[in-house]
Amino acid sequence: MVDYKLLHALAAVIEQAGFERAAQQLHISQSAVSQRLRLLEARLGQAVLIRSTPPQPTALGQQLLNHWQQVRLLEAQLTRQVPSLQDGAFNNLRLAINADSLATWWPKAMASFSQRHELLLDHVVADQAVGLERMRSGEVAACICEHAQPVAGARSVYLGQMVYRAVCSPAFAQRYLPASQASGQLVASELQAAPAIVFGPDDRLQHRFLLEQGLRAEFAQHVCPASEGYVELVAAGLGYGLIPQIQIEPALASGRLLDVVTGWHLSIPLYWHHWRQGGALLDALAKHVQHVAQHYLAA
Predict the structure, then answer these.
(1) Helix or strand holding residue 73 (H, E)
(2) What's 1-78's CATH class?
(3) What are the start-end ranges of the E strands in 114-195?
(4) Which parts of the sequence belong to the HTH lysR-type domain (predicted)?
């Protein structure tokens, strides 16, 4: 028989990235959290947690976390059907999402759904190239990523294409790309020497851009792990960057931002992944997200 109190402790340690914050979330002492995990490991006869900084689940721990995520969703469905079981007004869902979706179309997609279903969202920001790893580890119950193939026990649906433009400010173009601007055609040596802005270590969009121009994927770079701040750094002229078209259409129209290479764009497919046994709420959310996304993403 599974003791879900013990699984809850494991999930809290992973989600909160440590024992102290897990204890605060569970409203118990840190030693009590440790005791629950030791008891879980004693019953299973093997480790469920790698006690690193931050803690990481073992392969068995990942299986347990995946199960815990699905149990939470099924419990939420049951409490809606049997209101007397409710111990709070809201349901909770932890999901991984890329920062560009979070900064553009996602809030519009979720406002009405969250209110209608009394759903609280715990967003884990992860690049679209690696978001699926958060689901595979059992950390989240759903994610948005660029990979179509779901993990075992999950399903995926296609949402659409996020279209990126390589852009810079007029001042940046004058300083770093003067010959390109004067001729109307990219001068490769100028672009290779120009600084870029990347979101973080998992952001490989600039690398794809340079490779498509026949250049080396090696460049000077600023790092900005915030979508809105990223746009402002590009607009201020610190570097060029790849930004979703839907995020900068007014800036392009006004001339505040310019294309680095006229007519160039990069389309990244996005997929919604969720657990198959996540219950009616997760199924309804998948249909809702797919329906709304088609109004904001390219086909």
Answers:
(1) helix 59-81
(2) mainly alpha
(3) 119-125, 142-145, 154-168
(4) 2-58
